[in-house]
Write a structure and sequence with these properties.
Layout: H1 10-28, E1 31-34, E2 36-39, E3 45-49, H2 56-60, E4 66-69, E5 72-76, E6 79-82, E7 86-90, H3 100-105, E8 111-113, E9 116-117, E10 124-125, E11 136-140, E12 152-153, E13 156-163, E14 173-176, H4 178-187, E15 189-192, E16 204-207, H5 220-233, E17 237-242, E18 245-246, E19 254-255, H6 258-269, E20 278-281, E21 286-289, H7 297-300, H8 302-305, H9 310-328, H10 337-341
Parallel strand pairs: 3-13, 13-17
Antiparallel strand pairs: 1-5, 2-3, 2-4, 5-6, 6-12, 7-11, 8-11, 9-10, 14-17, 15-16, 18-19, 20-21
């Protein structure tokens, strides 16, 4: 592998990840995954999938659970293992108050990239984005106090697919069938919002197959099928969690409070949500719990949480459903019938 003109260790990290996306499924029948992973006191493992800005790193860093890894894993016949042996964290606006574990991991043996130092004191100014907003730090995983060493775990009990839906039409949490897991894994959906990138003035849908399209070597359906098979074999529950907007779009509503998302995760980890009562959400055919401890009931169903008119919600819901279906066209040739059947049903 030859890497030219880079100033990021991320190019090496993702280069090896791309190699693993070929070797592991093709030669060893092991599933490579762009995910974080943690483990509870009872040995229960959770995998978190999500694109940038969905909360993958934040939600997997749980003081009540041990961190197996924050970005790259494989799922074999014996369980999950971390590929990296370290972490590669964003540093922009980093502080000891907001992210103490990452802040304290930056010490001798860590590598900082593209940060700005005070010329006299040599102290890093983490708020300075003069060079780039994508400042980074690489450090060994044992610099995180609750890391699990070695970075191994059993078969996952839960899969969490994270999305940040700025259109406000996806539920804060829904339980997925294996077919829906394949579909939403294949989609890798989130939204970019104004202020995150130059030129973004309206919420913009973003899709990245398997939550890591640049690193895929085989057809995305191969990884999605392996994921569904492993879920079925090990009775793994799967959940779609929207960390984005509720009650309306990013233009006129608020993002789902982190305390409610954490309450949802707690209910997943303690088993309450697996035994909850559910109702079906239209178009996407998702199963929404009727109640979650610590979360207001009115937030759980997007249509009931919507602050505009019912017709406005219907228009927004159908519009997002159509975006999914348009993206599915890119993969239809290699997608399974089960995956295609789990797509949104948008009335003409």
């Amino acid at each position: 592998m030859i890497i030219l003109g880079t100033e990021y260790a991320g190019e090496m990290k993702k280069g090896i990840f791309t190699v693993m996306h070929y070797l592991q499924p093709k030669q060893y029948n092991v599933l490579s995954l762009h995910s974080s992973a943690n483990e509870g006191p009872a040995g229960d493992v959770t995998l978190f999938f999500g694109l940038s800005g969905t909360g993958k790193t934040t939600l997997s860093a749980d003081p009540k659970r041990k961190l197996i890894g924050d970005d790259e894993h494989c799922w074999s016949d014996t369980g999950v293992f971390n590929i990296e042996g370290g972490c590669y964290a964003k540093c922009i606006d980093l502080s000891a108050e907001k992210e103490p574990e990452i802040f304290n991991a930056i010490r001798f043996g860590s590598v900082l990239e593209n940060v700005v130092l005070d010329e006299q004191s040599r102290v890093v100014d983490y708020s300075d984005d003069f060079l780039t907003e994508n400042t980074r730090c690489a450090y060994p995983i044992d610099y995180i106090p609750n890391a699990k060493i070695p970075c191994l775990g059993g078969h996952p009990k839960n899969l969490i697919l994270l999305t940040c839906d700025a259109f406000g039409v996806l539920p804060p949490v829904s339980k997925l069938t294996p077919d829906q897991v394949m579909f939403h894994f294949l989609m890798g959906y989130t939204t970019k919002i104004p202020g995150t990138e130059d030129g973004i003035v309206e919420p913009q849908a973003t899709f990245s197959a398997c939550f890591g399209s640049p690193f895929l070597v085989l057809h995305p359906q191969k990884y999605a099928t392996m994921l569904a098979e492993k879920m079925s074999q090990h009775q793994t529950n799967a959940w779609l969690i929207n960390t984005g907007w509720v009650g309306g779009s990013a233009k006129n509503a608020k993002r789902c409070p982190l305390k409610y998302t954490r309450a949802i995760l707690d209910s997943i980890h303690n088993g309450e949500l697996a035994n909850a009562e559910y109702e079906t959400f239209e178009v996407f055919n998702l199963s929404i719990p009727t109640s979650v401890p610590g979360v207001p009931n009115e937030l759980l169903h997007p249509r009931r949480a919507w602050q505009g008119t019912d017709a406005e919600f219907t228009t927004a819901l159908h519009s997002v459903g159509k975006m999914f279906n348009d993206n599915l066209e890119l993969y239809k040739d290699g997608a399974s019938a089960e995956t295609i059947a789990a797509a949104p049903v948008v009335p003409v």
